[in-house]
């Protein structure tokens, strides 16, 4: 009797496996094969408790997997399970079901109960990647408003340092009139580069570009200097003696002889970087206009000969010149 049950179980399982491989008629075909395997397995369990019992359970397990799984079933067919339970009795059916993986009974394909998004295939935890990306953003961050404020502070300090080193040479004097001249000063780029913010890669790139732009702009700006062409040394119009003693000029504003803005061009090649640079350049130019207007040239020192002294006691300075040393701009 046990051998008969084993034969039926093997036959039912073979038919179910063959149907699954060949992709037979989905749905009801798999149900029929499973029913047959369950019945044969049940017959085996009525035997003497020998090998038919174990092989009957095996047949029930194999019969539970057929083309129905290929068609999206993924579990026991309810009709087949009911008929198997009737044929085998509750105890035999429970023994057959014990061979099926827990949680597989009566469930279609999908995540196991209690599964989260991390348990699904291809659903890795995104948090580390998000943290890494956030870190990169912070590391390369460029806050346009904070950068503008700090660039302004750097420009204010840098201009003060630079102005103390300015020299003016080559100013020509004829009487009390001054003309021409040239402004010499240290390169502004290296000086301002030490002051601009560089706390992140984004700030460093923007500051290096801004320092280069400021270096070029300041060099071009100082090339505009010319004495104002008005009386800067009133006493030189009529000097008593052979020559005029060194005399400081009448103060005048840099805004009288120089542009009030800088021609600044800089680009990082990125929207955020360019926006930050545009804000900083706008603020720097606004401040620079006020700075130029408030700076006074007070240390220009002129002197010269009085050619008519041989014939007269007094006369104007002729072919004189004036220079300004460091600290002459206040």
Structure commentary:
By secondary structure, the protein is α+β, with helices and mostly antiparallel strands. It has 2 domains: 105 residues, no CATH class; 182 residues, no CATH class. It has 10 helices and 9 strands. It has a 5-stranded antiparallel sheet, with no helix packed on it. A hairpin with a 2-residue loop joins strand 1 and strand 2. Helix 9 packs parallel to helix 10.
Question: Layout of SSEs?
Answer:
Blueprint: H1 2-22, H2 28-45, H3 51-63, H4 67-70, H5 78-98, H6 127-139, H7 144-163, E1 167-174, E2 177-184, H8 188-193, H9 201-222, E3 239-240, E4 243-248, E5 252-253, H10 271-294, E6 296-297, E7 300-305, E8 314-315, E9 318-324
Antiparallel strand pairs: 1-2, 1-9, 3-8, 4-7, 5-6, 7-9
Order of helices and strands: HHHHHHHEEHHEEEHEEEE
By secondary-structure content and strand pairing, the structural class works out as: alpha+beta
* Overall residue-averaged pLDDT value: 72
Q: Helical residue percent?
A: 40-55%
- How many alpha or pi helices? 10
Total discrete domains: 2
Measured by DSSP, the beta-strand proportion falls in 5-15%
Concise synopsis of the structure shown:
This protein has 330 residues and is α+β, with helices and mostly antiparallel strands.
């Amino acid at each position: 009797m046990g051998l008969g049950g084993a034969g039926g179980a093997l036959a039912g399982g073979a038919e179910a496996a063959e149907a699954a491989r060949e992709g037979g008629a989905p749905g009801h075909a798999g149900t029929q094969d499973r029913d047959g395997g369950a019945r044969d397995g049940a017959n085996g369990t009525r035997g003497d408790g020998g090998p038919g019992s174990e092989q009957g359970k095996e047949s029930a397990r194999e019969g539970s997997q057929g083309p129905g799984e290929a068609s999206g079933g993924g579990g026991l067919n309810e009709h087949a399970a009911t008929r198997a339970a009737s044929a085998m009795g509750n105890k035999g059916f429970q023994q057959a079901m014990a061979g099926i993986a827990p949680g597989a009974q009566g469930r279609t394909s999908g995540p196991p109960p209690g599964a989260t998004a991390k348990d699904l295939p291809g659903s890795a935890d995104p948090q580390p990647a998000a943290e890494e990306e956030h870190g990169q953003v912070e590391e390369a961050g460029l806050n346009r408003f904070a950068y503008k404020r700090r660039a302004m502070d750097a420009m204010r300090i840098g201009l003060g340092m630079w102005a103390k080193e300015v020299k003016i040479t080559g100013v020509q004097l004829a009487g009390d009139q001054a003309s021409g001249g040239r402004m010499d000063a240290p390169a502004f780029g290296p000086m301002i580069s030490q002051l601009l913010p560089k706390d992140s890669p984004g700030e460093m790139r923007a500051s290096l570009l801004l320092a280069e732009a400021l270096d070029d702009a300041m060099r071009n700006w100082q090339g505009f200097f010319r004495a104002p062409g008005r009386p800067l040394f009133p006493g030189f119009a009529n000097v008593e003696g052979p020559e005029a003693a060194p005399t400081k000029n009448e103060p005048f504003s840099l805004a009288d002889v120089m542009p009030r803005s800088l021609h600044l061009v800089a680009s990082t090649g990125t929207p955020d970087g360019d926006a930050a640079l545009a804000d900083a350049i706008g603020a720097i130019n606004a401040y620079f206009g006020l700075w130029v207007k408030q700076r006074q040239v007070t240390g220009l020192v002129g002197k010269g000969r009085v050619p008519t002294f041989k014939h007269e006691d007094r006369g104007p300075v002729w072919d004189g010149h004036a220079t300004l040393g460091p600290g002459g701009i206040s």
